Amino acid sequence: MSASGSANGWPLPRHTDPMTKTSGSVRAPREDDFDAWAVLFRGYRVFYKLAPDEAIVERVWSWILNPDHETNALIATDTDDHMVGLARYRLFARPSTGSVGIWLDDLFTDPNRRGAGIGRTLADAVTDIGAREECSIVRWITAEDNLPGQRLYDTLATKTTWVTYDKPTR
Fold first, then answer.
1. Mean pLDDT across the stretch 17-27?
2. Which of 64, 118, 125, 149 is the most exposed place for a label (fewest CB within 10 A)?
3. Domain for residue 167, yes or no?
4. Can you tell me whether residue 130 is helix, strand or coil?
5. Do 1 and 27 touch, CB atoms closer than 8 A?
6. Domain limits for position 65
7. What CATH number should be reported for the domain holding residue 84?
8. What value does the mean pLDDT take over residues 7-20?
9. Do 76 and 111 meet the contact criterion of CB atoms below 8 Å apart?
């Protein structure tokens, strides 16, 4: 990802949420964003009932800052530049269609700021990057019991019939 925030150097959008009439911005994280990003990422892990693990927090942050790693990220900030949301995404090959898609790994909003359009803004920003990169699709999964997230996602995308399986490697 380039310094301007996207893989090909396009500027990321500034956004005014039509529901709240408040402004904020979406941008790539900077090295000095770690503390605020880590608070949100830890909140994401708590939300999904994952055990606290600072090594994972630091590892994912190192991936985000490494331009040679497949992981990319965006953060949403409010008008005072306080971080209020995060998204983490990566490209993936789609051999069945001969195309490339974007996998939206994480989308998380500060629980105190939910319902203000932040998640939608981040998802739209990832979709905009996908369009510029000529990706065929943005795809993500969520927990079956994440009903508030699903209410948002149902307005953004089409729910598929695919079922996901995980098999540990060790």
1. 61
2. 149
3. no
4. helix
5. no
6. 14-156
7. 3.40.630.30
8. 38
9. no
